[in-house]
Amino acid sequence: MKIHENTTRQQALVDKTVNMDTMPLRWGHLRVWMVASMGQLMGGALSTLVGVVIPLMQALSHTHLSSLAQGLLASMSLMGIMAGSLLIGSWSDHQGYLRYLRLSPLLIFVGALIALWSIKIPWLMIALFTMGFGVGGGYSLDSDYISEIMPQRWRLFMVGAAKATSAVGNILIAFICFLILKHWQIREHWNSLFSLIALLAAVMFLASIRFKQSPGWLLSQGRVEEARHAVHYFLGKDVEIGEISNHGKDDNDSNYTWRQMFQGKNLQRAILCGIPWACEGYGVYGIGVFLPTLIMALGVSEGDNSAIGEITSSVELSAYMNIFVVVGFMLGLSVVKRSSHTKQQSWGFALCAIGLAIVLAGSWLKSPHWVMIAGIIIFELFINFGPHLITFILPPQIYPIAERGAGAGLAAAMGKAGAVIGVFTTPLVLKWGGTNAVLAVTLALQLIGAIITATLGRKILGKTTSP
Q1: Sign of the C-alpha dihedral computed for residues 12, 14, 15 and 17 taken in this order
Q2: Do 379 and 356 meet the contact criterion of CB atoms below 8 Å apart?
Q3: Domain for residue 242, yes or no?
Q4: CA nearest 35: which of 110, 144, 132, 193?
Q5: Alpha carbon 114 to chain centroid, angstroms
Q6: Which residue of 15, 159, 206, 355 lies most exposed, with the fewest beta carbons within 10 A?
């Protein structure tokens, strides 16, 4: 009788279990999404802050800051992101995701403290690189965690929504900086703005303390029981491991070489994921980081005649324009589950190029300010509707688990290489050819991104959009 009761109880427990691939969303899913998304939010916040700090430096403490120095300062955090994405992505494949999920915010915090400690250019470069390295580490891990934990029907949306949080970082920092410049008398101490990054990094680290190792990574190492415990920790004890259980140690040997990441199908994956990301990165960061500077150069802001007044007005207009970054992401997320991702990315590139063409024509023809503002809004809408969203989604779809951290890191690194080139050359191009030259170069690169996506995307992904 007792044996029968135990058997009945065990059968009841089995009947109540749910599969992680088909289960509804729970708080555990949202928790993983929020923690993993903080790296994206931090990246957006840091890029916006750099765009505010550079004109403040030039106006207040480094009045002879050259275009070359501006480009170097603006690109240091992106160089750090590129290195962090590449190295931490590779290290995490071999040593596990969790330690680097915790290390990344600590590096950001240390970099922010260095920036608070000194305003000398060499130390600022070290600080920005360190912060960027930590952000890059988060970039190589967040999509992996989210894509492994989410139910299939929510996977693409939640990975894309994580990327959209970068826009929240843009808006948050832009409006806070505007309030500081408008109402608080600490403008001369512009490096104190880096305390905002230190605060975000502290929150990011604290959120990662009560967390577990990636179930997919554990399974790839043959540690099945630990993977099961991790799934139970995140989602509940009634949850069974889903399709990631098909990836065992034998099928996911992570002993690859970097040469193999550029051979055969992996070369095609790198081109599709990396080069359009680089073109998008040039536009997002080349325009985004220097948006206050470009707004002042285009003459569409309405500040007083003082340097600080013009900077404050341009930061305010930038903050409002960043709202359309969120709108673009929302539009993209509304169709991402049923769209062809390569078509969405290609059309996004083409439409944001049209927006830049409108700004360029408005600048040439001395059109009313609203024409150029409308062009910038179109650019922000569609670069985030398409490439800024889809480039983040593609690597987890394309790379197998054993190479996913390195593949995502490689793609992010290539994207940030484009961003580095963008922010490094924008001040130089602005000096040599003015805003029209900056707009023309960015427009051409968006068209290149569209062509590569359209031609190579169908070959690799075909017509399916499922991860």
Answers
A1: positive
A2: yes
A3: no
A4: 144
A5: 23
A6: 15
